[in-house]
Amino acid sequence: MSNNRSPRTSAPPDPSTGPWAFLAQRWELVTLGVLAIAPLVIPALGGALGGQVTNLFIYCILALALNVMVGYTGLVHLGIASFFGIGAYVLAILTVPMYPFQIGFLAAAVIAVLVTAGTGLALGAPTLRLRGDYLAIVTLGFGEVVKVTLRNLEQITGGMKGLNPVPPPGAGVTLGGIDLGKEFAIDPRWFYYLALLSLAGVVLAMRRLENSRLGRALVAVREDELAAQAMGISATKVKLAAFAMSSAVAGLAGCLYAASLSTTADPNAYDFNRSIMVLCAVILGGLGSIPGTLLGVAILVGFDTVLAPWADSWIQQMNVNPKGLSYLSFSGWRLAIFGVALVLVMRYRPEGLIPSRRLAAELHEGGAGS
Amino acid sequence: MNNNAGPAGTPLLHVDRVTVRFGGLVAVSELDLDVPEGSIISLIGPNGAGKTTAFNCVSGIYAPSSGSVRFRGKRLERSFTLGTILWALAVGLLTGLLFAAAAVDVDRLWLAVVKRGMITGEPFTMSGAMKRLRGYFRSELAIDQMAGKWRVVSADGSDVLAIKRDLGEATLVRDALQAKVTARRTGPGTIPDATDLNPRAAAAAPQVALPVVKEEVLDRLAAGKSRIRWRGWLGLFSGMLLGIAGTLAVWQRGRRSPHVVARAGISRTFQNIRLFSSMSVLENVLVGLDRTIPGGVFSMLLRTPANRRAEAEARQKAIAALDFVGLSGDANRIAGELPYGDQRRLEIARALATGATLILLDEPAAGMNPSEAGDLAGLVERIRDRGVTVLLIEHHMNVVMRISDRIAVLDHGTKIAEGTPAEVRRDEKVIEAYLGGEG
After folding, report:
1. Nearest CA to B54 among B423, B438, B411?
2. Considering only alpha carbons, which residue of chain A is nearest residue B124?
3. Could you report the per-residue pLDDT of A176-232, keeping only the tens digit for each?
4. Does the pLDDT at position A361 exceed 80?
5. Residues 288-347 in B contacting A (C-alpha not used; CB under 8 Å)
6. Is A151 domain-assigned?
7. What is the distance, to the nearest Å, from the Cα of residue B312 to the centroid of all Cα atoms in its chain?
8. What pLDDT score does B4 carry?
9. pLDDT tens digits for B217-263?
10. What's the pLDDT tens digit per position in A6-27?
11. Residue ranges in chain B modelled with pLDDT below 70
């Protein structure tokens, strides 16, 4: 990347030299390489663990989507799960055998992404004048409206039953003698790679966004909307673009989610809890920071969906808790640990674990100035 | 102050009797100001004289309570174009369709159009779907299946009229009942149309045993057509009205926004520095260059050669702009970390980067020592020499007196004097405003 920002001259340890430089500058390639090789080396990824890690990737995409709104543009969004849900349902409607459309995964995903982007615009357009808390309340309300709508449009969405079975990607496609649909259904590693590929694509897109005209405009609007407007930037258009992109990427995550579960699950899967979980991950990792967001998801969601079940089964195996008492099971303490960890991070590292360079500067300046 | 000097003599900026009121407070009163192209005009006056308010008014942050601001003879407002109308119509159509969908019960519409097509096992075709769609809005009886039996149901599925084992038999019953329902349709808007009456129905009537259907059910079904159509139109119409009115209202309120003014070619700096303080110095200028960088979202995501070239060019321009104000060595520093004077100069670089032909500088030398202020005066002159007109608010009198072509003095929102530096310096009213009534 020729136009990578050169590091700050004032930073004491110069990260442009030394053995860690490659790792620091090309962290995404290194991580991608490790994750791409992992399923070939670790057999467990061919089993349930593979599904859990795939789920983690999908959460990462969702968190990056939210990061566009909350991190770059500074608009608090508490309803990202609704776009996730809309993506999942649109994909399901277009692919399930119950309905006559039954188009391929790729085409359905493209339509679903366009629909979620459009929904994002439709939510964004009337709410652009709202800032801070007010927008948060609107998005929170929107999330609930979508959830209840999905539940009540029973003829379309199947109500609480959801739509299933969503066929795996590549159903009916044979490539070099391999029935892709069957492969996807049997081996979770196919999904693992699909999700990883999508995640890599989204990370690349976000990197490009950060260093582009639009990305700078997003940050400028976050920093000082009036000054940005005085530079000829239409805050309206920039915010709408943020809404559309964020929703589109969340919709993509929803598509992968529905396809990987082969069901949309019930509408409660797209409720406030999911939105807030993703928001926590973004804040924990570092607002506006791609590696931070990914790390935040890996820690929070990884803890919740990978570590907690594993610890539970370990406790069971050790026979520590034969009576099944909730305070002796790990899941019983799951949320408490979660909460304490968040409190500690916010107390000692408010800018997140891997803060974005821009936001870190902002917070420290605020601290010094007061 | 008259603008009858002819087109050649039209000033770049013409402020005509602008008054700005905040509630009962008059911040600027009947201000006239002409800024000829290529000049440096200063606004001076004691604190609270309304200088910054006048700036905000020119740069579109406030709308004047009365009077007008013209730039190159044009009002600084977004014009009402065909695009505005089309956009309002598009939004209106969208809200209209949403309202209509809710009004005609989109859930049952889906059942009637999509799901019933699957029931009879025929392949899904567009024409079949359209037929069922028409059927829904005519509130025609339909056939669906439950637990292996065929049912004759109302279009929205809420009434079940007959249950048969055989599809053919069910079809005949449906046609016969449809004829009965259609016959009951009276009154305006419910005249039976050709598609309601199926020729098969008459022939079928004797062959099947019709189920007993209550009179009031038949009446309700007969009334269903006008009801659903009325609801649909009402939803569409009210939604469109709301959407169009809302879009136009928002357009009207955003008509005079700062970005419209900035795009017309007026840029500004702020009295209390408003940099994007967590972005780098270079990025701040790049934001100023935003309008000059071509390309949309997709070329950015695909990073097309054109996009790379545009970004590289913008970088060069930004560095040139930083060079101009003497900050090129700090390009990669965080803007908020710069010393105060440099932040002011960065703001000027950012404003110049927009390609503005008129730049408003709001106290650029505030907080500077005399030597720095002298440098700044030189910078302002160099800006003028680049062909950019400057309107300046400044308190450093030696800066103002040295570089201004003309000076306007404001006090309590009114212009009390205007003229060359030498004239203003001698003006009684100005001395009084600055030194107090006894002077």
Report:
1. B411
2. A100
3. 777 888 888 888 888 999 999 999 999 999 999 998 999 999 999 999 999 999 999
4. no
5. 288, 290-291, 293, 295, 297, 300-301, 303, 307, 311-312, 314-315, 332-334, 336-337
6. yes
7. 30
8. 40
9. 888 888 888 889 899 999 999 999 999 999 999 888 888 889 999 99
10. 444 444 444 455 666 666 667 8
11. 1-9, 120-121, 186-208, 436-439
CB A76 within 8 A of CB A282: no
Instruction: Give the count of domains, chain A.
Output: 1
Given a cut of 50, is residue A369 above it in pLDDT?
A: no
The residue written with tokens 């579109």 in the block is: B60
pLDDT confidence of residue A359? 59
List the one residue out of B439, B416, B356 whose CA is nearest residue B391: B356
3-state secondary structure of A370: coil
Q: Euclidean distance between the first and final Cα of chain B, in Å?
A: 29
Report CA Rg, chain A: 21
ipTM: 0.87
What percentage of chain A carries pLDDT values higher than 70?
Answer: 90
Residue A239 lies in a domain: yes
Look at residue A72 and tell me if it is in a domain: yes
What is the per-residue pLDDT across A310-320, written as a single tens digit (0 to 9) for each?
A: 888 888 888 77
Tokens of residue B421, six digits: 């530096």
pLDDT tens, position by position, A68-86: 999 999 999 999 999 999 9
Q: Give residue A206's domain range.
A: 27-270
Please choose, from the candidates A184, A149, A152, the residue with its C-alpha nearest in 3D space to the C-alpha of residue A169.
Answer: A184
Helix (H) or strand (E) holding B98: helix B82-103
Question: What sections of chain A are H helices per DSSP?
Answer: 20-25, 27-41, 48-67, 80-95, 105-127, 132-152, 154-157, 180-186, 188-210, 213-223, 225-230, 235-261, 272-285, 290-301, 308-318, 330-348, 357-369
Tokens of B119: 């029931």
Q: Which residue has the tokens 């992404």?
A: A113
Enter the tokens of residue A224: 């000082």
pLDDT interval class at A2 (50, 70, 90): very low
- Residue A120 located in a structural domain: yes
Tell me, what's the pLDDT at B198?
A: 54
Q: Which residue has tokens 């959830």? A: A147
Separation between Cα atoms, residue A333 and residue B124, nearest integer Å: 52
The alpha-carbon gap from A338 to the nearest alpha carbon of chain B, in Å, equals: 30
Q: Residue B250 — left, alpha, or beta (φ > 0 → left; ψ -120 to 50 → alpha)?
A: alpha
Look up residue A286 and give its DSSP letter.
-
User: In this structure, are residues A272 and A143 in contact, taking their beta carbons and an 8 Å threshold?
Assistant: yes
* Cβ-proximal residues to B258 (8 Å cutoff; 6+ apart), any chain: A226, A229, A230, B59, B60, B61
Q: Which amino acid is at A263?
A: T
pLDDT value, residue B48: 82
Nearest-CB residue to A231 (from B290, B303, B333): B290
User: Is residue A289 predicted with pLDDT exceeding 70?
Assistant: yes
The beta strands (E) that lie in B116-241 are given as 142-146, 149-153, 160-164
Q: What is the pTM of this model?
A: 0.89
Contact status of B91 with chain A (Cβ, < 8 Å) = yes
Quote the CA–CA distance of A189 and A183 in Å, as a whole number: 9
Task: State which residue of chain B sits closest to A208, comparing Cα positions.
Answer: B301
Question: Do A205 and B280 make contact, defined as CB atoms within 8 angstroms?
Answer: no
The answer to whether B225 and B93 have CB atoms below 8 angstroms apart is: no
- Which residues 103-122 in chain B show a CB within 8 A of chain A? 106-108, 110-111, 114-115, 117-118
Q: Which helix (H) or strand (E) holds B74?
A: strand B74-75
Q: Residue B290, class by beta-carbon neighbours within 10 Å (0-12 exposed, 13-18 middle, 19+ buried)?
A: buried
Omega before residue A165 within 30° of 0, cis: yes
- Mean pLDDT estimate for chain A: 86
How far is A92 from A81, CA to CA, in rounded Å?
Answer: 16
The answer to whether the CB of B259 falls within 8 A of the CB of A232 is yes
Q: What span, in angstroms and rounded, lies between the C-alpha atoms of B45 and B35?
A: 18
